Amino acid sequence: MSLLKPFSKLPGLNTANILLVESEEQFQQSLADALVEETSVTVNVRLAKSLPLPMENDESRPRIDLVVFIINLTSELSFQSAEASLKYLDPGYFLGKVCFMVTNARNASSPAERLDAVRKLASSLHCPLLFAEDQTPDGVASATERLLTILKVAAGLVPIATALYVSNLTRCTLPLDIDLPSFD
Amino acid sequence: MADGRAAAQLSEAAQSELLDMCEEQFAQLEKLQNEIILCEPDFCENPQEQSVKRLIATEAELKQWSTVEPQLLAENPKILLEAGKEEMHKLCSELEMVASCYEAKRDKLKETMELEQKWLEENKQMLAAASGHNERLQIEKEKLSEHTVLQDIKEKIQKMKVYQERLMETLGYILEKHIPLPQEDSSTNKKKKNVPHEIHENLISLNEILEILMNKALNTPHDPYVVIDDTFWPPYVEMLLRYGIAVRHHENNFKIRLETFF
C-alpha cells in the first residue's frame, strides 16, 4: 500500500499542487481548467479517479498540497469510492490538507441521508465541506475561488496562516441533532 | 518569495541580499524535509486517536506562534519600502472590493426599507379606515334600541303592504279593462254567438282563475296544480300558458300551475 504523504517531497517555488479525486470524472476537468487560470501562483492540477495513485510516475509527481474529494450526491458509488480512497492518505493530510466538495446537493434525486453521511465523514476527519454547482460557469468559478483560497494556505503561500490553523476554523461541524432540517 | 517580483526594480545589492536570504531559507527547508522523511511514520486508524493527535498538533502550533519573535523581513530599507508598497496596493484593492460590496448591500437595504415603509403606510391607512368603521358601528349600535328596530320593521311592513295593495289594484284594473268576462266578449262578438250558452254561465273571470292559481301555489306549495274544469274558459288558459304565466303538468294535460316567478 503506497500512502500519499504531504511532506515527502520538496515544494516548488511559488507553486501550489492540487489533486482532484472524482470517480465519475465529470466535474474534474472543468474545475481544473478554471484552477490553472490563476495568475498569482503557479497551480498544478493532478486528476485521479481514485486513490492510491499509480506507482510508475511517482517520481515525477510533485508534492500534493491539497487533496479534494469531489462527491456527486446523486450517486452512491461516488461516495463509496471517496470513502475507500481515504485510506491511502497519510494522516498528516488530515491536518488541513484535505477537503470535500459536494455537487448536485440541490438535486431532488439525491437522498438527504447521503448528505448526512458525507457530513459525518467530513466532520469526523475535521475537513471542510464545500458545496458546488457544476452545471453553470458561475458555479464553477465560485467553486474554483473557494478551492484556491484553501489551496494557497495549504501550500504555505499565505504568510502567518497555516493549513492546520485554517482547517480548525473551516472544518465541517456536525449539528448536535442530525435529524433537524439542515439549512444549506 | 512574495517580494521576488518587486526586487526586479531594486538595486543589484538589494537583489543579491534577497537571493541570499532565499537560499538560506531553502537550505533550512531542505534540512527540515530530511528530518521529516527520517521520522518514523505513525499510523493510527482510530478516529479518536487521530483527534487527539490533531489537538496535540494544534497546541504545538499555538506554542510555536506564541514563542516566535517577530522578525524584520530584511535590513535594507529599499526592500522594505517595495514590499510595503505591494502589500498596500493589495490591501487597497481588497478594501475597494469590500467597499463596493457594502455599497451594493446598502442600496439594496435602502430599497427594502422604502418598500417596507410604503407597506407600513398602507397598513396604517387600512387600520385607520377599519377603526373608523368600527367607531361608526359602535355609535350606531348605541343609538339603536329594541323599540326603534321594531318601529323600523313595522314601517317596512307597512310600506310593503301599501306596495302590494297598489300592485293588486293595478292588476285588477288591467284585467277589468283589457280582459273582461267572456260573456260580455261573446255578446259583442258575432262569431262567438254560436258558442253554446250553457257553458258561459259557469265561466269564471281571468281574475278568479289567477286567484285560484295563486292561492293554490301559496297554500299547498308541494302540490300547486289546479285541475282545469269547464269553468275555465279555454282561450284564457291558452293565453296563460302561451305567455308563460302558467305551466301545464308534465303527465296530466288537465292540470296547470302558476309559473314559479320567485
From TrEMBL, chain A:
Q: Which GO terms describe its cellular component?
A: chromosome, centromeric region; nucleus
| Pfam families per record | CENP-M
Q: Which UniProt keywords apply?
A: Centromere, Chromosome, Nucleus
Has UniProt tagged this entry with the keyword RNA-binding?
Answer: no
Localisation? Chromosome, Centromere; Nucleus
Source domain of life is Eukaryota
Name assigned to this protein: Centromere protein M
Where would you find the membrane-spanning parts of this chain?
Answer: none
UniProtKB/TrEMBL annotation, chain B:
| Cellular location(s) | Chromosome, Centromere; Nucleus
> Which UniProt keywords are listed?
Centromere, Chromosome, Coiled coil, Nucleus
The biological process GO terms on file are: kinetochore assembly; mitotic sister chromatid segregation
Keyword Transcription regulation present in the record's keywords: the answer is no
Coiled coil located at which positions? 92-147
On the tree of life, the source organism's domain of life is Eukaryota
Organism per entry: Oreochromis niloticus
Task: State the family named in the UniProt similarity comment for this chain.
Answer: Belongs to the CENP-K/MCM22 family.
The answer to whether the entry has keyword Coiled coil is yes
Pfam families per the record? CENP-K (PF11802)
* One annotated Gene Ontology cellular component of this protein: nucleus
**The name this protein goes by in its record:** Centromere protein K
